Every structure is written in C-alpha cells, then in structure tokens.
Amino acid sequence: MKIGELAQVAHCTVETVRFYEKEGLLAEPGRTAGNFRVYGPEHLERLRFIRNCRALDMSHEEIHALLVPMDQPGEGCGAINAVFDTHMAHVDERIRELTHLKQQLAALRQRCQSEQAVEACGILHGLAAMATEPKPERHTHLG
Questions:
Q1: What are the C-alpha distances in Å from 54 to residues 21, 41, 61, 64, 83?
Q2: What tens digit of pLDDT does each residue of 9-32 get?
Q3: What DSSP line would sit under the chain, residue for residue?
Q4: Closest CA to 1 of 21, 24, 52, 10
Q5: pLDDT number for residue 25
Q6: Which pLDDT score is estimated for 106?
Q7: 100-139 burial by CB neighbour count: b if 16+ within 10 A, else e?
Q8: How many Cβ atoms from other residues are within 10 Å of residue 48's Cβ?
Q9: Beta partners for 30?
Q10: CB within 8 A of 124, min separation 6: which ones?
Q11: How far from each other are the two terminal CA atoms of the chain, in whole angstroms?
Q12: Are 7 and 14 in contact (CB under 8 A)?
C-alpha cells in the first residue's frame, strides 16, 4: 500500500508516518520503480504498535526500548517490564505534580467565592502575591 493508504488505515496522517520513519521507529519501506514508498502489513502492525504506545503517553525513547526486544521474540521480556516500570514511575510523578497543581488552584479559587469587582478579586490578588517557586527538577521523560 502507499503512504496515504497506510496512514488512513492506521488513523494517522502521512506526516506522522514520515516522522516515525525519520525517528527510526518505523522501518523505511521499499520503493517502486517510480520511487513511491510501498508499505506492507508489517509496517501497519508496527505503526499501530507505536500509536498504541503514544496513546499511553510513552516517549519515543521508551518505544525504541520496546521495539528492540520485540524484534527478538525468542529473548526474555525483562527489558519490556523495566520500560513499563519506569514509565509507571513517570506517571506516578506526574500525578503527584498534577495533584499539587490542583491544590494550588483550589486554594486560589477559595479566595473568590462570589462575583465582585475585578479589583477585589481574591484570585487575582492571590496570583499577584504568590511567591515564585523555582521549578523542581523533573525526573520523568517529560523533561
């Protein structure tokens, strides 16, 4: 199939297919005599795998780490478990960050319980008075 057909079947764009090829996640296809890319079922399977990983918020590095053992089916799956354990730790850290963010937003929202003049808005006063905290160093793949 051609790149447009592959993208349509995989529910993505042609640009996404090209990007994954460029990133080394998707193998470059063969070419016709007219230099058109020709994709097979293995490309579709791999593209669906990549898209499923992205749906789980996995980084390209993590996907690369999964593709290596996937291409060696006779080996053990310890490396795959390690990638998932690390990814779940990233998700746990992001949940902690988002919980802290929600607490900050809720505290600000409590400062303004009813509509009033903007100059008296507790949210705006709270935002203006907040001390700027240094951004904590992230230890997740989000950077």
A1: 15, 20, 11, 12, 14
A2: 999 999 999 999 999 999 989 998
A3: --HHHHHHHTTS-HHHHHHHHHTTSSPPPEE-TT--EE--HHHHHHHHHHHHHHHTT--HHHHHHHHHHHT-TTS-SHHHHHHHHHHHHHHHHHHHHHHHHHHHHHHHHHT--S---GGG-HHHHHHHHPPPPPPPPP-STT-
A4: 10
A5: 95
A6: 96
A7: eeeeeeeebeeeeeeeeeeeeeeeeebeeeeeeeeeeeee
A8: 14
A9: 38
A10: 118
A11: 37
A12: yes
> Which tokens hold the place of 27?
């193998």
d(CA 143, CA 140): 6
Q: Which of 114, 109, 135 is nearest to 124 (CA)?
A: 109
Query: Two tokens at 119?
Result: 């100059």
